Amino acid sequence: MRKLLKFFLAFTIFGFICLFLFYTAAAFTPLELDSKKERFTIYDINNNILYETNFKKELTWTPIEEIPENVKQAVVAVEDKRFYQHHGFDVIRITKALISNLMEGRIVEGGSTITQQMAKNLFLSNEQTFTRKLEELFYAARLEMQYDKDAILEGYLNTLYYGHGVYGIKEAADFFFGLPLNELDNAQLAMLIGIPNGPSLYSPLINEENAHSRQAVILQVMANAGLISEAEMQAAIEEPLIYNEDHQENTNASYYIQAVIDEVNAMISRGEISLKEGGNIYTYYDPDVQKKLVESFRNNVDLNDELETSAIITQPFTGNILAIQGGKDYTITQYNRSIYAHRQVASTIKPLLYYTALESGFTPSTTFMSTPTTFQIDAQNEYAPTNYNELYPNREISMINAIAMSDNIYAVKTHLFLGMDTLDNALKAFGIENSQAVPSLALGTVDMSLLELSTIYNTFASCGQYIKPAMISAITNSYNNVVYERDMETKRLMNLDSVLMINQMLTATFDIKNKTVNFPTMYGSEPKVQVGAKSGTSEADSLVIGFNPEYTIAVWSGFDDSRSLDKEYYNISKRIFQSTFNSLYEGEETAAWYQLTNNLMERRVDPITGKDSLLGSIYWFKKE
């Protein structure tokens, strides 16, 4: 018995020593919070404030003095009732959570205190690992040893994430209800407190039933803590809530804002700029264009489906990125697929191939036989591409028809005729270094981001002038000194006449006169104004990219895990493309299109054969 008591005493002393050393280290390892409060103001293309950020996360900082007492009391009661007694972590809460989780055989209860959650929100990722949990505990201890409880609670209330790109309880009150914190009633406050536990589950704008269930739990906790009466609790549960009608406007920019922050962070890391005390970031974000893109997503994308979709809209002749939608909903996923995801581009590569063909002496009327073909690449290798659904016209077709029908046989014949290095070199001129000179390159077996692919199309839209796309026009520091200004350098990457012929041929994808064994690939998806467009489908990807002189719109859809797409999904990108273009020209009957140069002429031809025909369609050719 004595040995057991000695062991227990030794273990207790050892534990106290470890805790002493742990908190001593925490006390003497400086942790700055002030830098987190530095504001960076982001402006849109109209020089209106788009967002204010502390740069580590997209949030504004509200001092604890501006947060009403009832809000603080309710948050503490719900999230960490022993907040003012513990020193960073709550042993009682951790023990109860551990027992509950063991009994259920799964995680049903968390043991994190407000201090731990604030540490995670401000300094760490959401990664669920043992190492990250230890880091969280040490950050929590440092916070407790170096700051008072009010400073910690202030940090926590400012770093709560509510989904929809909204951080901080003050911003959330404005976003969801259009009210300042001191005007929230019990029902509204309880709804807000419940959301951060799982924004995609408990946001009333996504799942109102879940949100109200969570609200009822929060109200019961508030009643148990004596903050409200039973009668007030019941009245709050029954109260119908009215949400801020402008909430959608506020969330449209979320992907764009995060992309801007990522880019400026990268510039700082590379030592290109220094912004130690905040500053101003001026962007090309166009709220009207973004709103129309988001509305198109909402009308055509099912949020309950696993299918993901992304899009980017760029302005020809400037390279200004006007709008970005990195996924179907920022609350559900913050990953920006339009910039960071690299996917197979499929048949959207073909206009670049045919541009190189025009530069090598082809014309829009140049024909090849489209029939099942096996190509002998070398002594050991054969290549046998197939058309979609293995449908072949089994006749000579023109380049116009090959674009309209996305004929793979014509594309590979062109690719091999020119030499496989031709398309490969054209891609490398755009910085696509992972391209390989292989037979299948003609069918788009190269991975690119949507941004990279849209840059190629934006060069077509810009009459062959390459402009590196940009979100940021200028950056000034806190003293209003310019630390970065975009150099909108342009270079001619393509011949004007050949580009204009391609641009006109890209209207063939809508032209019913191209119908052979199937309809033209974009038939039925044409916007009400003239545009050139190309679709592309691989086993796992569906793309549509098109343009006129004012907008280049690129849309992708697919599954993040690259599983095969069912045919029913192929039209989603087309519908988004069509409806976005239509909404951009709402109330207008026509839009700008390109003009012939002195070296070009228009001809009315049968687009299938490429021969002159009074019943044909107009395409552009070089003068003979």
Quick synopsis:
The protein is built from 22 helices and 20 strands. By secondary structure, it is an alpha+beta fold.
Task: Tell me the layout of helices and strands.
Blueprint lengths: L1 H26 L12 E4 L5 E5 L15 H11 L11 H14 L9 H10 L6 H17 L2 H11 L9 H9 L8 H9 L4 H4 L5 H17 L5 H9 L8 H5 L2 H16 L9 E5 L3 H14 L7 E7 L6 E5 L11 H4 L1 E3 L5 H10 L7 E4 L4 E2 L5 E2 L11 E4 H7 L2 H11 L1 H10 L17 E3 H12 L3 E3 L4 E6 L4 E4 L4 E3 L3 H10 L26 E6 L3 E7 L4 E7 L11 H15 L15 E6 L11 E6 L2
Parallel strand pairs: 1-3
Antiparallel strand pairs: 1-2, 3-13, 4-5, 4-18, 6-11, 7-10, 8-9, 12-15, 13-14, 16-17, 17-18, 19-20
Helix pairs in contact: 1-5, 4-5, 4-6, 7-8, 8-10, 10-11, 14-22, 16-18, 16-21, 18-19
Q: Which homologous superfamily in CATH is the superfamily of the largest domain?
A: DD-peptidase/beta-lactamase superfamily
What is the percent of helical residues?
40-55%
Q: Briefly note the CATH topology name of the largest domain.
A: Beta-lactamase
Instruction: Output the structural class.
Output: alpha+beta
CATH architecture of the largest domain: 3-Layer(aba) Sandwich
Taking the alpha carbons of the first and last residues, their distance comes to 108 Å
Q: Please list the strands of the largest sheet in the order they lie side by side.
A: 2-1-3-13-14
Largest sheet, described in full?
5 strands, mixed
GO molecular function, one term: peptidoglycan glycosyltransferase activity
Domain Penicillin-binding protein transpeptidase: 310-540
Organism: Dielma fastidiosa
Keywords: Carboxypeptidase, Cell membrane, Cell shape, Cell wall biogenesis/degradation, Glycosyltransferase, Hydrolase, Membrane, Multifunctional enzyme, Peptidoglycan synthesis, Protease, Transferase
